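Q: What does the assembled structure look like for these inputs?
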Amino acid sequence: MSSTLTSDAAASEASASPGLGESVRNYWDRVRGGELGSLPAVAGLVALIIVFTVLEGDTFLSAFNFANLINQSAMIIVLAMGLIFVLLLGEIDLSAGYAAGTCAAILGVTLTQRGWPLWMALGATLLTGVIIGLLIGLLVAKLGIPSFVVTLAAFLALQGVILLIIGEGGTIGIDDPTILKIMNANMSPLAGWILFGIVVGGWALLSLLKMRGRRAAGLPVENMSVFLAKLIALAVILGAVVYILNQERSRNPAITSIMGVPYVVPLILILVVGLTYVLGRTGFGRHVYAVGGNAEASRRAGINVSRIRIACFIACSTLAAVAGILFASRDNSISPSTGGSTTLLYAVGAAVIGGTSLFGGRGRIIDAVIGGLVVGVIANGLPLVTQESGIAFIVTGLVLLVAASVDALSRRRAMATGRA
Amino acid sequence: MSVSTQSGVRPSSGRTPDPVLSLRGVHKSFGAVHVLQGVDFDVYPGQVTALVGDNGAGKSTLIKGVAGIYPFDDGDFFFEGQKVHISDPKHANALGIEVVYQDLALCDNLDVVANMFLGREEKKGPGLDEAAMERKASETLAGLSVRTLSSVRRTVASLSGGQRQTVAIARAVLWNSKLVILDEPTAALGVAQTEQVLSLVERLAQNGLGVVLISHNINDVMRVADHIACLYLGRMAAQVPASEVTNSQVVELITTGRTGDIGLPAQVANHADAIDPTTGA
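A:
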């Protein structure tokens, strides 16, 4: 044990800022040591895409299907982002799916039935999410009821609330053009490339600023070759996505032209950047990880643990409200089953598949995107291969099981190598 | 400066500076259990004061009182000569009192820097000032001559027991603290790591801090302590310079409250078996 530590120390003293080759080797060492991160999910995503391409290449790889995949995954991704806040604490929110449905119902009632202006209706929708999260958080943090029980109760109760709002078998239509645009309209191809430029350029600028700040403070700085490799990888992947989405994907281009990046993509990008900042770069985010890692230590360090718990449940339900808005946009209407059936389980699955631990303390917002895409690819690709929806459920269940085992096994591996 | 701070100090070597912490006749009861019965205790800056005593002697209660977790019921509490009343841990921290608990209270999933600044992060605008925190953490570790940590960005999960103890101690001295209390810092460590931590304890004192070391290991105590304070059934049996006692005298103080002419009055010590610890009578 101590000999590996000293050799470790010698190695990193020898090279304060490792070059590209060494960075790759360090990363591989961490993976072997049990710090897998998003690697299994990315590998799984690539594997699934290859399988579906081999089986149903023409349909699965079409630009139309690719845009479809993004739309199918969007709600799962946003819901999973919210769940990551709660999972980071080692808690669970089973009610997030129906919280999305309830908030969507509020949107429908205020917008369509009451004729409120859009901003007021959106405000009411998000406020509903805040209130649901506040109630759950208070019960968990102040009364100390396990979150599994509280949110199971909320899961049942919210299902009833939606039924009461909408009425048995009824639906509320959504006809607001702005809401409908989110999931059903696309940016112009030029706007897509501008978005690409902002994201890649912004990432490069922020990275360079961070490197400059660290150099000014006399701290070790990331090697330039590592930075360039990351930048090129980001540009290639995003460039390919924008290029494919900018292809004409209408069945009949003479009548309607469908091309460009769906509006939901920039929305998700904003959420990824904003929430990653909150979790990774603010005191609040640091305290979320701390409470998830060791609640007693956090309490002794003067962190208000109850406040952090409540805030995370509010974040979860509020993001569920955003997912509810996406549901309303995609379906043009809200029914009592909005946010029901497999929605929540897919979202929890997405977070876990992406690399967020169910044991708390480990996870990132980007996990929701990667895991959400894995779930989306299965939901999207399998129906092309087989019409049996039973098989889709079984395959998704198996993928979730594999992801949870990877989580558990990597923890064991990390324990064995002294990394956890 | 209160004159009374000096009145009860036991005679010791003449060059002893004014104590940073001075307790006079403190009492603490939990219900009917009278845990501390008029304890006097002094800690001097730049010196290591070992606090020893058998299980149940009141060591934990004494340090929890100093840390503000269970405030004392009665008695005088002088910090740097000023009479203070510490009612909660934040107040103790604000004065410069830091406690490193036996279970360390570190978050395994966070790196060394994040743990050292936990709950007191440096901010720049809305976000964290990571560069400043990393620099300060590195400086603090360098100031303690810590060379066992290869990177301050490693997660605590990947550290050995001795390294974790080092991080916990470094966290305590990061805050201009004047008094650091270490609760059994070597209890779970191997020989080499114990040695690392003990030399760290010595360096804390060399840097001018008052250090309280709680330990069951007489060898560790004799190795680093300048003063030894021995609690016996809720009373301070003796607080003596370490150079004036031997290992076996310390063991005798711990087990009977008395050795030779040092310690509690003979009738108290000799009635040890007859004393009902719940009432102290």
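The interface with chain B takes residues 1-2, 5, 8-9, 11-13, 33, 213-214, 216-219, 277, 281-283, 286-287, 289-290, 292-294, 296-298, 300-303, 361-362, 414, 418-420 of chain A (CB under 8 Å).
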